[in-house]
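Q: Can I see a sequence and its folded structure?
A: Here is a first one.
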Amino acid sequence: MKKNIGSKPALYPVPVIVVGAMNGDEPTWTLVAHTGIPSHSKIMVSLAGAHFINGCIKQTGVLSVNVVDESWLDHADLCGSVSGARQSKADVFAWTAGEAGAPLIDDAKLSMECRVEDVYEIDHFENFICSIAGTYADDSIVTEDGKVNVAALRPVLFEMPTYTYLATGEKIADCLSFARTRKAPAEVTRS
């Protein structure tokens, strides 16, 4: 029997990312776990309105999304505990500028350089709707057909209610493989 536990965003876990933006001549970084895919051509990065990096993103119009794996989680975690308004985070990571000018973390096996298309404010969060200017992937996580191998990437996941980091799990099955193996639609019974 299910019970109503209240109005809770129960879509966690989600991948942990570090967002990068330029603050003048140096990068600044912040840890983020509120991201989404509103369409096949756009991604969304949601940041509390009080974040220092928001102003930097609005000024430059570009940001980077760097997917965190366990090898640099300690540095990523630090970026979530220090405000860029009080302390520079420029030296936390070695970085390279992407073609659109956003800072890409060298240790990240997967980075996306994004152009901000729009910003929606909801409940004191600024939601940056972005087009992807480029996806930069380490050879070790790219398949022969040019796709990202998430099993090789092993992104860290964040679970909100307990504020914990989780390891990426094992592959269960290919998407839609269950539908292909069914001969006829099963009847659904309701209790």
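Q: Show me another, different protein.
A: A second, unrelated one:
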Amino acid sequence: MKNPTLNWNLSCTYQALPPVFYSQAEPADFPKPETVLFNTALARDLGLLADAAIDPQEAAQVFSGNRFPPHAQPIAQAYAGHQFGHFTRLGDGRALLLGEQTTTGGARIDIQLKGSGPTPYSRRGDGKAALAPMLREYLISEAMHALGIPTTRSLAVVTTGEMIRRERLLPGAVLTRTAQSHLRVGTFEFAAATGDVANIRALADYALQRHFPEVLAENPANPYPALLQAVITRQAALLARWQQVGFIHGVMNTDNMSIPGLTIDYGPCAFMDAYDPATVFSSIDRDGRYRYENQPPIAQWNLARLAEALLPLLDADEKNAIDIANAELRQFAPLFNQYYQQGMARKLGIFEPQEGDADLLNELLQRMQAKAADYSNTFVRLTLDMLDADGAYLDGTHALFADPAFAQWHTRWQARLAEQAQSRADIAALMQAHTPFLIPRNHRVEAALSAAEAGDMQPFNTLLAALQQPFDYRAEPHWQRLPDAPQPGYQTFCGT
């Protein structure tokens, strides 16, 4: 077999950490892997492809783990985490880090196989993955990337040629995931749990060198408080973006909180339909711990666990270290509120938020909740109003827009916009930039995954292509841009 036609430039800096942070592991040998998806655009960004296309058979061998790229050193990473508030030691139970691809621009990107077989951290599991969850992660992560939200990304999905047993027999698959790194809050919790401050320092220094070199340069004597501050800032910005698009992660355990500030691990996640702050999208979250409205407080709780792990590095005096940690943690809420209010103001066409704008937004959200209005479609319809376009067909908005009390709110909103110097066209452009027309509706995702399990990838590919392409709000009629909605009044992805 000839070598893969990919321009690998792998190194393995993670192995410079103490050996306690990882274990050597080998992927399973899969009988008949086949390439289902290959992200050509991402491959080019990573420097893996120039102009030539990858041979699907070669890709299947590499991205199943049957063949390693040059210089790969597969390891499973160790970490811990608070899962639904309870601490446990974890690790990559079904994932292998092959190494880090250095792009032509000098970025260092993890290449990880997910579902490649058991590792020392598998805890009696088979370490394998079914096709549908791997396709879900590919779809949602690429949709998040298209929305401009920091996220891990998906390079490939291959089927493995074998069936795996869950509640029923399912086709097996491996996802190739890329990330700035897979460092997590749980990685620092693991370091602290070893009881060796040298391990915490080694991990913190690695995070600084890889993700926050400017922090290290500006604080050479003691960079660790600034490291905590940097992670808090990135998480505040990330959570604000989630809330602005109605994204619910579903399982915000500390092992699912990324140090570089990425959305990571797409399990029972979804975008909210009818606006309800108590919305939960995980069947195992029976108490609503990770409901939509609780995501920012949970992020702060998770960051407190990071601060606890870093205490020995913040200051030699424990009381001073706790004071430093608490001072940094207190910055999360105001930072989140700043980012959130700015983003939501832009969804309403407000360039420079002023006192009273938060009340305008909160009143809208309250009316949306009272009328069970669709979250995304409401903001789409407001945007279409600014374009003098017909948005009446958007599902889930009819009761809200017919409400006389909403008409009064609408008048106040228009009066607020009229105070700005910007033109109506400029306001509409601002709203469009912060209001996605297409989102991966959960029922559409599930339908596409069911078809894929039955061997039909066309619905999935149609959905993926629609989510990855910019949507022109000025297109008339709008529904003609939606692949399976030939008639007015039927919304493929925005509606129900």
